[in-house]
Amino acid sequence: MTPDRSPGLAESARALAAGEVTSRTLVERTLARIEAGRPVLNAFRIVRAEAALAEADAADRELAAGGRRPLLGVPVAVKDDTDVAGEPTAFGCAGDFPPVTEDGEAVRRLRAAGAVIVGKTNTCELGQWPFTEGRAFGDTRNPWHPGHTPGGSSGGSAAAVAAGLVPAALGSDGAGSVRIPAAWTRLIGIKPQRGRISTWPRPDPFQGITVNGTLARTVADAALLLDAASGSHARDVHRPPSLTVADAVGRDPGRLRVALSLKPPFTAVPARLHPQIRARVTELAGQLAALGHEVTEDDPPYGQIGLAFVPRATAGIAELVAEAPDPALLDPRTRGAARLGRLLGGAPLRAARRAEVALQRRIGAFFRSYDVILAPTTAEPPPRIGALYGLGGAATDRAMIGACPYAWPWNVLGWPGVNVPAGFAGDGLPVGAQLLGPAGSEPLLVSLAAQLEAELRWHERWPPEPAG
User: Fold this and answer.
1) Which of 30, 45, 63, 303 would bridge 80 by S-S if both were Cys, CB 3.0 to 4.6 A apart?
2) Contacts of 462 (CB under 8 A, 6+ apart)
3) Residue 276 gets which letter from DSSP?
4) Are 168 and 6 in contact (CB under 8 A)?
5) Residue 436 and residue 415: Cα distance in Å, rounded?
């Protein structure tokens, strides 16, 4: 990689509007960084070099004519589960996927804000795992420690942003797939309220547990991208009331009641919180207390929430496997999950969907006592490349649950969460913490995250340049 790193999203938009740089220059530099980073990071499945330069030239003409849109001419990336017209959407899978004819609604809205889509980032097969490795595209590596994964399933987006290849990127989060890679690459990762960013042309992906979200180095950039991408398609299942999130950056959140929750929700597999992650998250709680917030150690009444997750997740995999051009090319673990999803796709799935309202009511009552939950994003630091990829189905599930037991309940509930950097564990491996809130709490979570960022300045530290 070159020492040149991308300016932030807001800074890029400001410089373009001020005439300090052209979109073509920003996009050319971005494409050069992506190419230079390819041998080490392997963050992109598709690079739209020719198309992106044409879009940049069009943005420059509009800027010269006085046009002003929030992201006019700014390069961004999207995860390869999101439709970009003229490109295939392989979602981490091998096989011959035809190009799609229309942008997904989130991409359409980014284009309406003026963004230039430079490429589609790598993701593990159908977004199932907290690592981004696969036979279709190889290993995506962590810019902080290339021997380790950046996480998943939005690992390509996280690696690209953390390394400074692009200023920000879209990801998706069905069990922590934005928050986990954000934690393991030292980024802000916003998982918004279900439906905040449209998932169209999939109106209810993974039976409602998957949402689109944003990854960036700063709270302001993640919020800016969220606002640009937000909005509903007329045929979306979930259409929450609109709100603006970027305005909350710099706003005093007030004195909040924060629950420090270190106990993972119950799962059939034991999960142990790494002592150094416990220490880092506890230190972050101390920082919140120093800022004037009331911090109490307490855990939400999760109960058997896992029973509402597994049928929805596996049924979602079964739906996607049925669309694959060549299912024989898929990972055996994917085919196994699809078989389970077909078994659970009747009465168990209906029961899982019905359980959501009661879970929201019970866990929502916790927010009568607290405003925000602070919890670890993961139980372990990022694993080494290959540590989980070579396992069988049951062993992968055990390892995945042991490493990442904290994020998925908020997907069942459909509520917002924001990963913030929490420091490092082991030999300089990034770890993170989640700020979690009830429905529609993105502005509060963003305000609190920005308050922490102003104190801790985590965005000022970059990954080391790779040797050679």
Assistant:
1) 45
2) 5, 164
3) H
4) no
5) 8
- CA end-to-end span of the chain, whole Å? 9
Smallest Cα–Cα separation from 195: which of 137, 150, 156, 240?
240
* Nearest by Cα to 29 from 73, 88, 61, 67: 73
Q: Is 153 in the active site?
A: yes
Residue 468's pLDDT band (boundaries 50, 70, 90)? Answer: very low
Which tokens go with 437? 């809130």
As given in the structure block, the two tokens for residue 42 are 């392997």
Cβ–Cβ contacts within 10 Å for residue 346, how many?
Answer: 11
Catalytic residue among 6, 153, 232, 261: 153
pLDDT at 466: 66
SS3 375: strand
Whether 233 and 198 have beta carbons less than 8 Å apart is answered as yes
Q: 345: which 2 tokens? A: 């796709």
Record the pTM: 0.98
pLDDT class for 383, splitting at 50, 70, 90? very high
| Side chain identity at residue 71, one-letter code | L
Tell me, yes or no, if 191 is annotated catalytic: no
- Per residue in 208-229, pLDDT tens? 999 999 999 999 999 999 999 9
Give the model's pLDDT for residue 5.
93
∠ CA 384-212-416, nearest 5°, is 90
Q: CB of 74 within 8 A of CB of 13?
A: yes
d(CA 101, CA 107): 13
Which residues does residue 429 pair with via DSSP β-bridges, in sequence order? 425
Q: Say how many residues make up the chain.
A: 468
Rg (C-alpha) for the chain, rounded Å, is 20
Distance CA 348, CA 417 (A): 27
Helix or strand run (H / E) with residue 363:
helix 347-366
Task: Output the pLDDT for position 102.
Answer: 98
Out of 79, 157, 191, 232, the active site residue is 79
pLDDT score for 269: 81
Handedness of CA 340, 196, 172, 110 (dihedral sign): positive
Most distant pair of Cα atoms in the chain: their distance: 60
β-sheet bridge partners, residue 47: 119
* Residues 346 and 315: beta-carbon distance below 8 Å: no
From the candidates 23, 157, 177, 441, which is the catalytic residue?
A: 177
pLDDT tens for 81-139 read: 999 999 999 999 999 999 999 999 999 999 999 999 999 999 999 999 999 999 999 99
- The β-bridge partners of 407 are none
With cut-offs at 50, 70 and 90, classify the pLDDT of residue 266.
confident
Tokens of 28: 């050319």
Helix 442-456 / helix 275-290 crossing angle, nearest 10 deg: 100
- What residue has token string 């070099």? 49
Kindly indicate the confidence band of residue 268, based on its pLDDT and cuts at 50, 70 and 90: confident
